[in-house]
Structure formats: C-alpha cells, structure tokens
Design goal:
alpha/beta, two-stranded parallel sheet, elongated
Length: 157
C-alpha cells in the first residue's frame, strides 16, 4: 500500500502591523511634543551683540515675527531673504512687501491685527546701527509698532 501525501493548506504567516503603527505614532507624538521650537528662530549668520542690560524674556508673546538682520545688509523673514533698498519709500522695498504678506496672513488666518504682533529683531553685532533703525522705521511704516531687540547677556566671570 502506497502512502498518500497530505498537502497542508496552511496560510502564510504575516505579522500584525497594528501594534507597530501604534508605536510609530506614539514616537512621532512624543518627539513633536519634546522638540525645542525656539531653535527655529535662530540663524547661524547672526551673532548677537553683548549687553549688560539684556534680560531674558519674561513671557513669550504668542504672536511674534522674528527678523534676522545680517551684517551684509540682508534681512531674513522666516525663510525669505530680503533687503531694504536705498530708497526712502519703505513700502516699496522687498522687506516691507514680505513683512506685509506675513502680517496679512496673521490677520486673515489668526484674526490678529498688525499692531498686536511683536516683531523680534535679532541684529548681528556687526550690523550698522542705521540699518537696525531702517528696519524699525520700515516696520512702523506698515503698522507693526511693537518690536523687541535681542542681545546676549554678558557673563560675569
């Protein structure tokens, strides 16, 4: 008598991916909550000047725009590199047009008026004083009147 071969009809094994997806989403949530978002306002080309009067901010204003004033006369608004041209009509400069777009976005999406937005100016220590004054005048010409200058505190050794 010949032996009959029995073929098994087992299903191929496949792992259950649901727990793996849960773990991945938990890791993404954890790292998003732990991430330091204050580092996003830093620019590697800006070296803040030293000041004995510099104080750490007491409380962060929820509506703020950070400007990076570089020593070469350029201004970085978010990720956009702009500059104030030599003419005295600030409203026609690429800087004011970029800042106006940012303020309009906040007015439409977040319902915040330009006068309620704090403009943080991080000026390089080698930037000319007149350049920082031009930035302030340009901000005031489009309605952003509240601004803060950033500096490094001197260390007492």
């Amino acid at each position: 008598m010949a032996k009959k071969r029995v073929l098994s009809t087992l299903k191929p094994a496949s792992p259950n991916m649901t727990p793996m997806i849960d773990v991945v989403f938990l890791l993404i949530s954890f790292f998003t909550l732990v991430m330091n978002f204050s580092q996003t306002e830093l620019h590697e080309d800006v070296v803040l000047p030293l000041s004995e009067l510099a104080q750490p901010p007491e409380g962060e204003d929820p509506e703020q725009i950070t400007l990076q004033a570089l020593s070469n006369g350029h201004i970085v608004v978010g990720t956009v590199d702009t500059q104030i041209e030599s003419n005295l009509d600030y409203a026609s400069t690429t800087f004011c047009q970029t800042l106006t777009k940012e303020l309009n976005w906040r007015r439409v999406i977040r319902k915040v008026q330009p006068k309620d937005v704090t403009v943080i100016i991080r000026g390089d220590s080698n930037a000319e004083t007149g350049f920082i004054q031009d930035i302030i005048a340009a901000c005031q010409s489009i309605g952003a009147d509240t601004y803060v200058l950033r500096a490094r505190q001197t260390r007492e050794d």
